[in-house]
Amino acid sequence: MQAGELRKRYLEFFRDRDHAVVPSAPLVPKDPTLLFTSAGMVQFKDVLWGRTPPSIPRATTCQKCFRTTDIENVGRTAFHNTFFEMLGNFSFGDYFKEGAIRLAWEFLVGELGVPEDRLSVSVYLDDDEAFTLWRDSIGGPEDRITRLGAEHNWWGPVGDSGPCGPDSEIFFDTGADRACGPDCAGVGCDCNRYSEIWNLVFMEFDAREDGTLAPLGRKNIDTGMGLERTSAVLQGVETVFETDLFRPIVEA
Ligand code: SER
């Protein structure tokens, strides 16, 4: 499937499930604490934070992003980019963990036909609710649900303060032969075996500048699926640079 088709199918899937389709915001945000728009949630930060009341309960976007926090990986791995497009669905006090997990699985497996046995997930260390949802509601085998610490499964805030929370990541297994070696840490490893294609953030905390966390008044969902990475999965190629998004540039 070409990337353009994936972009269209994603937005239509969530539009058909009561999400308003919102255009990508500019790469340079109005937020004075951020140089670039680095995630789909940036344009919704004040709503997720509870500073602005939501005008809609659900939204979906394809957001142009520029991210430098993992720039040391760009050019070294098969999957990292500085500029990329992030497909996302958002709930502002509407559905939460169960809805986000169910919708993601329905899209990946039901709509796109990604084989279930190539997918693994990670959850935040003590997030028993997410673990149980993956195991019991989705029926994922326990050995493909990994608990990882905050360096992997906690998202945000962007900038010095703001909404954040534990997350659950979905990985596509590109094959054991692509692992970095026999001691590969699996989904916790940055090597080329597991491609993190989708991050589901359960945004329920306000990170304050003094380092403390306070519960948000509303629990929200912020998800981000990599258009380039998921295109690589659907096109059966080993790196994002071989997808139809990059191939013409590489060839030129
Ligand atoms: N904000 C999360 C991320 O950028 C999910 O969209 O990964």
**Considering DSSP H and I runs of 4 or more, what fraction of the residues is helical?**
10-25%
The general outline is globular
Strand tally is: 9
Outline the biggest β-sheet: 9 strands, mixed
Low-confidence stretches: none
End-to-end gap: 22 Å
What portion of the residues fall into strands of 2 or more residues?
25-35%
From the helix content, strand content and strand pairing, which structural class follows?
A: alpha+beta
Number of discrete helical segments: 7
Mean pLDDT score: 96
The sequence of SSEs as H and E is HEHEEHEHEHEEEEHH
Task: Give a short summary of the structure.
The protein has 7 helices and 9 strands; from the N terminus they run H-E-H-E-E-H-E-H-E-H-E-E-E-E-H-H.
Give the helix/strand layout.
Elements: H1 3-15, E1 20-21, H2 45-49, E2 58-66, E3 83-92, H3 97-111, E4 119-124, H4 128-137, E5 145-148, H5 150-153, E6 154-155, E7 162-173, E8 194-207, E9 213-226, H6 227-235, H7 247-251
Parallel strand pairs: 1-2, 4-5
Antiparallel strand pairs: 2-3, 3-9, 4-7, 6-7, 7-8, 8-9
Helix pairs in contact: 3-4
The structure holds serine.
Serine (SER) binds at residues 39-41, 88, 155, 199, 201, 222-224.
Kindly list the characteristics that best describe this protein.
252 residues, alpha+beta, 9-stranded mixed β-sheet, binds serine, single chain
Kindly describe this structure:
This protein is an alpha+beta fold and about 250 residues long. The chain is built from 7 helices and 9 strands; from the N terminus they run αβαββαβαβαββββαα. It has helices spanning about 5-15, 45-50, 95-110, 130-135, 150-155, 225-235, 245-250; strands spanning about 20, 60-65, 85-90, 120-125, 145-150, 155, 160-175, 195-205, 215-225. Strands 1, 2, 3, 4, 5, 6, 7, 8 and 9 form a 9-stranded mixed beta sheet that branches. The chain starts with a helix and ends with a helix. Bound molecules: serine. Serine (SER) binds near residues 40, 88 and 199. Serine (SER) binds near residues 88 and 224.
